[in-house]
Amino acid sequence: MARAFFRLQKFLRRTQFLLFFLTAAYLMAGSLLLLQRTRFVIQQGSRGTSANQALPVLDGMSGVGIIDPRMLQNPHPGPRLLVGMDTLQEPALDRRHSPRWLASRNSELRQLRRRWFHRFISDQEPMQAAGFKAMKRPAEHKGTYVGCFSEDSRERTLKGAVFYDLRKMTVSHCQEACAERAYTYAGLAYGAECYCGNKLPGTTSKPEECNTECKGEKGSLCGGVNRLSVYRVEELRAGARRRRNVIYRGCFRAPENLTDTFPASLIQPNLTVEMCSEFCSKKEFPLAVIRGRECYCGYPTGRFPLHDGADGLLCSGLHNSSSAAAGKYCLVYQTPVQDTRCTDRKFLTTKSKGFVALSSFPGAGNTWARHLIEHATGYYTGSYYFDGALYNKGFKGEKDHWRSRRTICVKTHESGKTEIEMFDSAILLIRNPYKSLMAEFNRKYAGHLGYATDRNWKSKEWPEFVNSYASWWASHVLDWLKYGKRLLVIHYEDLKQSLIPKLKEMVEFLNMTVTEDRLLCVENNRDGNFKRSGAKQKDFEPFTQEMKDLINRYILTVDEALRGRNFTGLPREYVPR
């Protein structure tokens, strides 16, 4: 018995010693890790540059144009490096891509991405809170429930407008959206998709097949898999009429044969714009065309592309329908109905052979370019990031892994050799840095659709933001020009001004072919769901002279780099202020 007790005592002593040793080792390892992280942060802070980031700039930057005339006289200007407000007289070409410069720039980019990630997470918190509030809110269905109908993506039941809200869709939200656009029926599917239309099929599905709960409203059903919960919203249309927009598109030369050009028509004495618009809306056409007492409905087509408008005087008064009775010209209006010829989208059926990036600096219009590409090609675009707000609004490629190759191209704001060389080719979208910086600052403080307040612009964060992000705008372009394997450079301003030609370039670069009617449909839906709304200050100038001097240097540097790679230089709009 004594011997057994001695063995137990010896074992406990060994175990106690072992536990003590493991505890000490754990504490030492934690202390070393803490010291290492502290040292890394100190080193990163000493290397981080924000406003002091070194980017090559050229002498003689006081010229009015993009290229200073003195630079043409002196083809070898003395380059220098910007460090805050001081300059070092060292050759820029020797240090432009030196290890020290790259380490400095990459250090800043890591900080920017980290701040960007935390900002994104914080942006999602109020969205989640709003989502929970929507879930708790009782259902308020103003429309009349019609029934459950089958839904086929290849042959849609309701052929009008389409809306997505994969987080907060409710029955009321869908009903109001369809009523504002002059539709009779609102249908919901998959708990998050809203479809509008004026015609229903004769047969219904079993009521129990519409069994999916709405994403933003507990206790309410929003269709199901290939099933639509359909409501009649005709009684809501009267209240929504005052919010409905009929947009005047202009005076155009009438096509030779209007009956062949437009699929629906109406002849009505004392015809008014409202009468023609209501008629075409019920027929689910986005255009209402008036010539005298004749009303025609249809789409923009090759016969009637709406590209070459005529002088309004030729229609003898913009809104006097009887004055256009000569027959050569007609008045064109945009009805509330959405052009749905290009709204169908899907993932690639087979993996893409080429891995294509859609690269831009934040605030340069990447989301808008994705909207155009998706509607032109009919395929989703992917993203290096996951943006819940974009996914909820129908950019379903956001949730797909960015390397799946199931999307036509992948959005990225990344730069650096490793990140760029992962892609086989890229569309490089460049926007005026003044506009890009303001757009990203607006997104940071007011989301994708709002504007930052005066308090935000006057805070100390705006100068810090410009100092940090202006250098990123330049280094992003320079890196893609250096490491990109195959590039198509698109300037945001050119895309906005000449949408169809530039969109054709992008589609051909992606090895896709599209019809002219589909491109015209994209042009008709050019703004998408991410155009900022609300009051915007005219002639608003948040940039100080010091900020302008900094940005102007980067503009000249990027312009020289583009021309050095045989690309077109920056547009004249970028001329330093």
UniProtKB/TrEMBL annotation:
Keyword terms, alphabetized: Repeat
**Which GO molecular-function terms appear in the entry?**
sulfotransferase activity
For this protein, the record's Pfam families field holds:
Sulfotransfer_1, WSC
Q: Name the source's superkingdom.
A: Eukaryota
Domain WSC, residue spans: 142-234, 245-342
Signal peptide location: none
InterPro entries from the entry?
Answer: P-loop_NTPase, Sialate-O-sulfotransferase, Sulfotransferase_dom, WSC_carb-bd
Asked whether the UniProt record includes Repeat among its keywords, one would answer yes
The family line of this record is: Belongs to the WSCD family.
**Which PANTHER family does the UniProt entry name for this protein?**
SIALATE:O-SULFOTRANSFERASE 1, WSCD FAMILY MEMBER CG9164
Instruction: From the Swiss-Prot or TrEMBL record, give the protein name.
Output: WSCD1 protein
Question: Per the UniProt entry, what species is this protein from, by scientific name?
Answer: Centropus unirufus
Classification from the root reads: Eukaryota, Metazoa, Chordata, Craniata, Vertebrata
